[in-house]
Amino acid sequence: MTPKDKYTNADGSYRGIFGDWDRIAWIRQPYSGQGDLKPGKEFFSTSVFPAADHPLVLARGPETRSALLTKRLFRDARFTALLERAIVNPVVLIYTDEAATRRNRMA
Prior knowledge:
The chain has one domain (21-106). Helices cover 50% and strands 0% of the residues. It contains three helices and no strands. The radius of gyration is 20 Å and the shape is elongated. It starts with 20 loop residues before the first helix and ends with a helix. The model has no long low-confidence stretch (mean pLDDT 79).
């Protein structure tokens, strides 16, 4: 069986937009204590940021591509932190407060 699109595995199962992120992203690898980027690893997956593989970016060299991927990583990390602080954390507090209130009523 052949995949229908880039988000489908060969067996037809859904693999998601992040595809092989865990395998190729430096940030997802076990900490080695070295602090250096492992050869062949990237700071951000090009499967979710294909602009890094644009011919104009590639023509400027690997340093430019790496810098672009690093900036994208920081942009997404900042977005994630803001999303968690502004939306996720308040909702979690509401639900945990409600759960605690229910437990106290039942006690």
